[in-house]
Design brief:
Elements (H helix, E strand, L loop, with lengths): L12 E5 L4 E8 L9 E10 L4 H4 L4 E12 L2 E5 L5 E7 L9 E8 L9 E7 L6 E9 L6 E11 L8 E6 L4 E5 L7 E6 L5 E6 L12 H8 L7 E4 L2 E11 L4 E11 L2 H12 L3 H17 L12 H16 L14 H4 L2 E3 H13 L3 H14 L9 E3 L5 E2 L7 H17 L2 H20 L22 E3 H20 L3 H19 L10 E2 L3 E2 L2 E3 L4 E2 L8 H4 L8 H14 E2 L3 E2 L28 H13 L3 H13 L27 H14 L48
Antiparallel strand pairs: 1-2, 2-3, 3-4, 4-5, 4-10, 6-7, 7-8, 8-9, 9-17, 10-16, 11-12, 11-15, 12-13, 13-17, 14-16, 18-19, 19-20, 21-24, 22-23, 24-25, 26-27
């Protein structure tokens, strides 16, 4: 089978990690169509994650960029306005290049003649090393030799212009070092792994080409040379090398540099020695070997084996993207690699599901790191805020309350324990688990639902709702808590938490025409919500599919089938895509659209929503229907199989770049493909329910509809203590 191909739309930004304490962000072009700043392909941010929390969010650089000149005889053309380049970027996943971030330079819009060489700039993050290694690959497809000149330059981000940076050239090691400690910052190093034609410790504010301390770019742009200034004290500093080479017809040549950040000068010297201890080729090979070993994870890492290799590539690259976007020190995630609208927020709901996917794929260390970080962010009442800063973990106000994260945390904690049998982990997190579960129980409402919130779509204008999505996570979370209580020998607590799940299940299954209304619509689907004031919100909303995906509603039930049928018949786009709900104008004309009108029409497709339908199709024996959904997801991914963002346009048939790439959407794909191959199931089976443990009111709902084991479960009142 020919592999399903991704779209041609590149992610605008991607994270790169050394797995230990350093994260960079690559970007190219405008982050969205509404972005006023077009930036050429470069490493646009560099963060060092040791030391004070405040320092972790500091971007140590303005940019780390490559510039070019064609200096062949009779043809001198500058390609130094790199923001005029179109570019594409992605992570490789093959044996030779796994984990390597590749940038291909495409059309150049500021010259009459396009570059005659094919130019790539690739980034390797050798694990646990304080530097990234950069490789320029120049390929000559012509019939004659071409001489090219490369400028490799980093512009430092001095946070205090009143304080100077001291920069100097270490001739013995072919490296430039900048001491930024006067402003409370760090040491930045730039080194070359081959002989160079020039170097420069430059004053970025100095544009005079006659000045020894001129900005490196200005000198290179003027005549292709650097001044070889080896010592500089200034507020605005750039470090640069240039390398001139002739590429024969049909030949490919590589040039290597490295960029690092360290706390002390001794650390900087050690990093330079380490970088020079191997060749550029070897650093790339070692990085790929480390990524291949991580993907395999001692044969514990789960991979997929579809006949369509596009799905397999998407799976591996989704995992690589997720690991790179995780803070390697704290375990937090950024909600998207594009910082334009969503910044550096960790959406707790999203990141909890991402951790669940990591555990499902066998990457337990990363999942545990995140779950422990979540435990550390938990409020004293057992809940979480909606978003936190991924660099330092600080609270970032957003739409609140969103309580779906509570159930997702409980679910993730149990899944991690079930997969690892880590008794220490369970013991450590049990107080957090109990606090979260007790909060759900103590906030069961008189109508039987868990507490109302703004849930997944965060639409404050709709008011607080008992949204089916959040209610599904409440139930799954309480199932998970029952299982953890049983594992700890707390049988009475397991029975106690069963009552809360029973109450919510009763409310979900109760017809919406009853008083108080439940979630089951007489038209044979689950409503989006019951409003906090006990009015009905009958909207057909694809997020309600989480009821079936999590197994809260049995996929074998008639209600599951009729609900999915209603969702699909109402919201299908592009044959396999699903809109959120009828008339959805987010990413279209809505004022909060992160990139303006990217979708070009209402009701864009949300790949995550389509994947939850695929889970139902797989479980109900309709794998032939689920496979095209997976292939559609792959076709809507970014160039190089980078995961899409939240939505894709049904007009352009391209992913929307403002939230691309999104770990949550990638996580949903990982979970669905594993489900397809029978390697994972999302549902949790709780211990047998003991009706005597729940405190009930006199009236039970016993209508003989398809309510499964919960048809006769009474309301649960709460908030009595477990000892009551």
């Amino acid at each position: 089978m020919n592999p399903t191909q991704p779209s041609q739309t590149s992610a605008r930004a991607l994270y790169l990690s050394n797995w230990q304490d350093m994260v960079g962000i690559w970007r190219a072009g405008k982050l969205t169509q509404t972005d006023s700043a077009r930036i050429g392909p470069c490493l646009n941010e560099l963060h060092f994650l040791r030391g004070s929390l405040a320092r972790r969010g500091v971007n140590q650089i303005v940019d780390y960029t490559g510039f070019f000149r064609d200096e062949s005889a009779g043809a001198s053309v500058s390609y130094t306005k790199v923001d005029s380049f179109d570019a594409e970027g992605w992570f490789e996943s093959d044996a030779a290049g796994a984990g390597i971030l590749v940038t291909n330079y495409l059309t150049y819009h500021d010259a009459a003649v396009q570059p005659r060489l094919q130019i790539s700039r690739s980034y390797a993050g050798p694990p646990n090393r304080p530097f990234f290694v950069v490789r320029y690959t120049l390929k000559n497809p012509t019939s004659g030799a071409i001489t090219f000149n490369i400028l490799d330059q980093v512009h430092l981000n001095n946070l205090d212009p009143g304080k100077n940076v001291h920069a100097w050239y270490d001739a013995a090691n072919n490296a430039l070092i900048a001491d930024m400690t006067a402003s409370g910052q760090l040491f930045v190093i730039l080194g070359a792994l081959q002989a160079v034609d020039g170097y420069q410790a430059g004053n970025d504010a100095d544009t005079s080409t006659s000045s020894p301390a001129v900005c490196g770019w200005c000198s290179f742009d003027a005549n292709g040379t650097l001044k070889n200034n080896g010592d500089l004290t200034a507020a605005n500093v750039d470090l640069a090398f240039n390398k001139r080479l002739t590429v024969a017809a049909g030949e490919t040549q590589n040039v290597y540099f490295y960029l690092g950040v360290c706390e002390t000068q001794a650390d900087a010297n050690a990093a330079i020695a380490a970088a020079r201890g191997s060749s550029g080729d070897n650093w790339f090979s070692a990085t790929a070997a480390a990524w291949n070993a991580w993907l395999a994870n001692g044969n514990q890492g789960r991979r997929v084996h579809f006949d369509d290799d596009g799905i397999n590539l998407m799976f591996d690259r989704a995992l690589i993207l997720i690991k790179n976007v995780q803070n390697p020190v704290s375990g937090a995630f950024s909600a998207t690699t594009n910082p334009f609208a969503y910044g550096y927020k960790d959406w707790v709901r999203d990141s909890a599901i991402t951790a669940i996917a990591l555990d499902a794929t066998g990457h337990h260390a990363e999942a545990e790191s995140h779950l422990r970080w979540l435990a550390g962010c938990q409020g004293s009442d057992g809940t979480w805020k909606t978003t936190y800063n991924m660099w330092d973990g600080s609270y970032v106000p957003f739409v609140e309350p969103e309580y779906d994260s509570i159930g997702a945390f409980l679910y993730g904690a149990y899944r991690h324990y079930a997969l690892t049998a880590d008794a220490r982990f369970l013991s450590d997190l049990w107080p957090n688990v109990k606090r979260a579960s007790d909060w759900i129980l103590s906030n069961i409402q008189p109508n039987g639902f868990g507490q109302a919130d703004f849930s997944i779509w965060e639409e404050e204008s709709a008011g607080l709702e008992h949204n089916s999505y959040t209610q599904a996570w409440y139930v799954a979370g309480l199932y998970a808590t029952q299982c953890m209580a049983e594992a700890l020998g707390e049988t009475s607590l397991a029975e106690w938490y069963a009552g809360g799940a029973g109450s919510i299940m009763t409310a979900l299954q109760r017809p919406s025409a009853w008083s108080p209304p439940g979630s089951w619509n007489p038209a044979a689907y689950y409503n989006r919500a019951v409003n906090a004031d006990n009015t009905v919100q009958p909207m057909v909303d694809s997020s309600s599919n989480m009821l079936i995906a999590l197994g809260v509603v049995d996929h074998q039930s008639a209600r599951a089938a009729s609900h999915i049928s209603k969702i699909v018949s109402t919201l299908t786009k592009q044959t396999y895509g699903l809109a959120r709900y009828p008339g959805d104008d987010f990413y279209y004309t809505a004022v909060w659209s992160p990139g303006g009108n990217e979708a070009l029409a209402a009701e864009p497709s949300w790949p995550q929503m389509s994947l939850w339908v695929a889970v139902f199709e797989i479980l109900s024996g309709q794998s032939a229907a689920a496979l095209p959904r997976l292939q559609w997801y792959v076709s809507m991914s970014g160039a190089g199989y980078m995961p899409p963002g939240e939505a894709v346009s049904n007009v352009s048939l391209q992913p929307l770049v403002s939230s691309m790439s999104e770990p949550l959407t990638a996580a949903a794909f990982l979970l669905t493909t594993l489900t397809y191959e029978g390697q994972y199931t999302l549902s949790i089976v709780p211990p047998v329910y003991n009706a005597g443990a729940a405190k009930s009111i006199a009236v039970s709902f016993t209508t003989a509809n398809d309510w499964g084991q919960w048809a006769n479960v009474p309301y649960f009142l709460g908030p009595q203590s477990a000892a009551a």
